[in-house]
Design a protein that fits this description.
mainly alpha; 2 domains
Length: 163
């Protein structure tokens, strides 16, 4: 099975985060050798991918902003280098759409880009990017409405307008 960091993250999201279940965690050492780690290996994920996913989540938590005023409407974001290689035009356009609609502020957009580039994948398709956006919004205080809107978009073929 070709699993990726995103596969592990989606497994955690579906089994723990969205069900308000609290994974059996403690400190990082006990997490990497405890019941959650065992469950992930039994689900078919390699230890290397599990560790990378934990690192990804740690980096997301470290970048979690304090309750600050969102910055919206700054300068136009120009994508460069690895961002252009990993995110196609559709993904970049979707990020611009989310920012223009107020779903993401500029700090959240940068966090989404950081976390998308941190995935161990050469390219991300739009569905993968949507999951990254959802995971980032889930971790952001005060983003409940944006998270709810994004969650509905995950299961629709056509995006719903933002009001």
């Amino acid at each position: 099975m070709k699993e990726s960091i995103l596969d592990v993250l989606l497994y955690l999201f579906e089994h723990y985060f969205t069900n308000d279940a609290v994974p059996p965690v403690g400190d990082r050492d006990s997490l990497q050798s405890g019941p959650l780690f065992n469950e992930l290996t039994e689900a078919g994920f390699s230890p290397a991918e599990i560790h990378k996913a934990f690192d990804w989540l740690d980096a997301l938590a470290e970048q979690r902003p304090e309750a600050a005023t969102p910055r919206v409407g700054g300068p136009t974001r120009v994508f460069h280098g690895p961002e252009l290689d990993k995110l196609d035009v559709e993904c970049r356009g979707f990020l611009l759409f989310l920012e223009q609609q107020g779903i993401l502020d500029t700090d959240q957009r940068e966090l989404v880009l950081d976390r998308a580039l941190a995935l161990d994948q050469d390219e991300l398709d739009l569905d993968d990017l949507k999951w990254v956006v959802l995971l980032v919004l889930f971790n952001q205080p005060g983003s409940e409405a944006a998270y709810a809107w994004m969650e509905t978009q995950m299961f629709l073929d056509e995006p719903e307008p933002v009001h």
